[in-house]
Structures are given as structure tokens and as C-alpha cells.
Amino acid sequence: MDVSETTHDLAAELTQVLLKDHDVPAVLKSIAELAAQQLSGDRTILCGIILKRAKRNTVVATSSAEAQQMDEHQAGFDEGPCLEAQKTNSVISVPDVRYEQRWPKYMTEVRDHGLHTILAVPLRVGTTSTAAMNFYARETDAFTEAEIEIAKHYTAVASQVVAIALRIARYADDAEDRRTAMESRTAIDLAVGIIMAQNRCSQEEAVEILKAASNHRNIKLRELAEQITTAVGQMAPATSFEP
Predict the structure, then answer these.
(1) Residue 224 region by backbone torsions, left for phi larger than 0, else alpha for psi between -120 and 50, else beta
(2) pLDDT band for position 236 (50/70/90)?
(3) What separation in angstroms does the CA of 101 have from each of 92, 104, 135, 161?
(4) Which value, to the nearest 10 degrees, does the dihedral of the CA atoms of residues 131, 134, 99, 142 take?
């Protein structure tokens, strides 16, 4: 396999992955499946990706159920070559797991599954997330220097796709947060208006009444505001957004 020969097709395939789905776990799963195909040849290579996002749960995406087990064990033990590759931003090669002394708990699981070689390559996906790709093989010394270069090339191209998917997901999260904040503001403003009318008080006084009631009943301000507006209007308050 020649790296230069695969560049165009690989970039095109990964672009299609991003065009088909922006959901981060789905994008990672497609990338793992393509990676396994890329290196398998006349033997079976398993592939898994572990992604750690700031303030979010770890995402594991794999090319098969067996790879899923391996990466879930690794994430559970919080040790292993993939996590080491993330931390050090370097390629980690384990040519024969029978003699590997690092990550003892994880290595026991790998040996028990009849896997003998692991290659972990970091994905460069931005400053708020870290990720790496694991390649597993049943043979010892399964990856030649040329194949390691191909794996590194694949992850370099895949890194760009994952970074874009993460950026899209972040924008979607931000938009949803803004929408939620606007909906909350609408309910509270309406409830304040109702309290002003009922108590013939100022806006500032109405806000204090609403806060005091929220604390006394031990419920969130938005929930109480929605209860008040629903009781008066017979339906939950709605926020209009421009298309």
C-alpha cells in the first residue's frame, strides 16, 4: 500500500462520512470502520476510537463488537495505549502484548481475547478534546513500518473530519443553549407581568415575589414561571423564533 496512492480516495471517503452525518458518535464509528478496512488486507484488523470531550462523557466508537469491548475496557480501567497516545500525542506500538508490562489490567483483557498487536495513533482534534485510534490484530508484529505510516496518514486526514464534526456539534449545543435561555426568559417575563397585574406592583417587586416563591417552594424559577403562565393562559408559554 502506498500512502500517496490512497490520499485522494481517503479524503473523498471521509468527506462523504461528514456529509452523511454530523452526529459525533456516528462520524467516529464510520471513521473506525473505514480505518479497519484500510489496514485489513488479507487479515482482520479491528479499530476503535476513544474521544474525550471537555465536560462530557468519553465517546467510544469502533469497527466491531469485539473492538467495542476492548475500548470500553480501556476507558473503564483508565489505562491503555489509546489513552497514552492521547496524553502524550505520540504513536504507541505494542508488537506483542504477551511481553507488555504497562497497563496490566488492560493487557490481561487483550490477551484473553486472543489479540496480540496494538497500534495507537493520536487524532489531533482541537484544544478542548483529545482522541486516539486503536488498531488491533491477532498476529504478533502485525504492522510493518509502511503500514504504521498509512495508519498515521489515515488519522491525520480523519483528524480534520472529527474536528469539523466537533465544531458543528459545539455550534449546535450553543444554539440549543441560547434557545433554552430565551424560552426561560420568556416564561419568567410573562410570569412577572402577571404578578405585576395581580398585585399592582412594580416589575422589581414582582421579580422579588417570584424569587421568594421559588425559594419557598424549592423549585426552579423557570418551572414556577411556567406554572403561573400556564394557570392563567391555559397553555405553556411559547417563544417565537425567526426562521
Answers:
(1) alpha
(2) low
(3) 14, 6, 19, 34
(4) -140
Asked whether 160 and 93 are in contact (CB, 8 A), the reply is no
CA distance 168 to 126: 13
Span 199-225, average pLDDT: 86
In angstroms, rounded to a whole number, what is the distance separating the alpha carbons of residues 32 and 46? Answer: 8
More confident residue, 93 or 153: 93
Alpha carbon 234 to chain centroid, angstroms: 40
Bridge partner list, 93: 119
Kindly indicate the confidence band of residue 186, based on its pLDDT and cuts at 50, 70 and 90: confident
Handedness of CA 213, 217, 222, 223 (dihedral sign): negative
What is the CB-side half-sphere exposure of residue 2 using CA atoms within 13 A? 3
